[in-house]
Amino acid sequence: MVLPGILFMIIFSYIPIYGLSIAFKNYTVVSTMRSAAWVGFENFEIILKDRYFWGSVTNTLAISFLKLLFGFVTPILLAVMIYEIKDGPFKRIVQTISYLPHFLSWIVLGGMLISWMSTNGMFNQILMGLGIIKEGKNILLDADKYWWIASLSDVWKEAGWGTILYLATMAGIDPTYYEAARIDGASRFRQIISITIPLIKTIICLNFILTISGLLNSNLDQTLVLMNTQNQETAEVINSYVYRMGLAQGDFSYATAAGLGVSIVSVVLLVLANLLTKKLNDRSVL
């Protein structure tokens, strides 16, 4: 049963590692990976001097930190609230509604957001109805607001799906803990703080490690859908910049070098996050 997964990893994860060699070569579409001339670290030197690349790094980190700030805590809070609801139709409806955005592609959700944030869209109609603004304007054309749009829309899409692991862990908690707490007079809030949260600490730490390691891997689909010429200055992230340089402009060596650099930094972040959670999780390594 494991064999298909192993073959998939070998074919799509390990064999392509050989292609990383073009990061150190001057590779073009008319050459092969073997015949391309070696240039050493020249591509990396170009990256270090490229202000557009560093602009994409700034945008990526800003959006990722906002996603971490809101997107990491929201699934935990939502999972706790769903867990506290008694089993019944209302609980199933809440779970279904919260899961639904995850199964829609960014093409669909992006189209919805573009429509909602247009000059005559839903958001402007609500703001004008509340008297906050006098006339509508296209929110997506405002570059200063893009970081918030990208981070909050990602939370909206993934928060419900992110509750699955937490709810599965909570389902395995021995109910006698809660019975003993109620006998001792603990309130519902005290039970959450003293029982639920500590018993899901391991899965929280695991998700934290994975989230930190992916800080530089921004959502390419979301960026390509929501980015336009007006907000590109703050919308361009590393993945979209590498995509444009590699596929749109044909500079494969530059794009590979940038991707390799991001991967190395991600591994460093992964190790640092694991060391941090080791100290917070009774010295145990996840």
TrEMBL record:
<feature type="transmembrane region" description="Helical">
    <location>
        <begin position="103"/>
        <end position="123"/>
    </location>
</feature>
<dbReference type="InterPro" id="IPR035906">
    <property type="entry name" value="MetI-like_sf"/>
</dbReference>
<dbReference type="Pfam" id="PF00528">
    <property type="entry name" value="BPD_transp_1"/>
</dbReference>
<feature type="domain" description="ABC transmembrane type-1">
    <location>
        <begin position="57"/>
        <end position="273"/>
    </location>
</feature>
<feature type="transmembrane region" description="Helical">
    <location>
        <begin position="192"/>
        <end position="216"/>
    </location>
</feature>
<protein>
    <submittedName>
        <fullName>Sugar ABC transporter permease</fullName>
    </submittedName>
</protein>
<comment type="similarity">
    <text>Belongs to the binding-protein-dependent transport system permease family.</text>
</comment>
<feature type="transmembrane region" description="Helical">
    <location>
        <begin position="252"/>
        <end position="276"/>
    </location>
</feature>
<keyword id="KW-1133">Transmembrane helix</keyword>
<keyword id="KW-0472">Membrane</keyword>
<feature type="transmembrane region" description="Helical">
    <location>
        <begin position="6"/>
        <end position="24"/>
    </location>
</feature>
<dbReference type="InterPro" id="IPR000515">
    <property type="entry name" value="MetI-like"/>
</dbReference>
<keyword id="KW-0812">Transmembrane</keyword>
<keyword id="KW-0813">Transport</keyword>
<feature type="transmembrane region" description="Helical">
    <location>
        <begin position="61"/>
        <end position="83"/>
    </location>
</feature>
<dbReference type="GO" id="GO:0055085">
    <property type="term" value="P:transmembrane transport"/>
</dbReference>
<dbReference type="GO" id="GO:0005886">
    <property type="term" value="C:plasma membrane"/>
</dbReference>
<keyword id="KW-1003">Cell membrane</keyword>
<dbReference type="InterPro" id="IPR050809">
    <property type="entry name" value="UgpAE/MalFG_permease"/>
</dbReference>
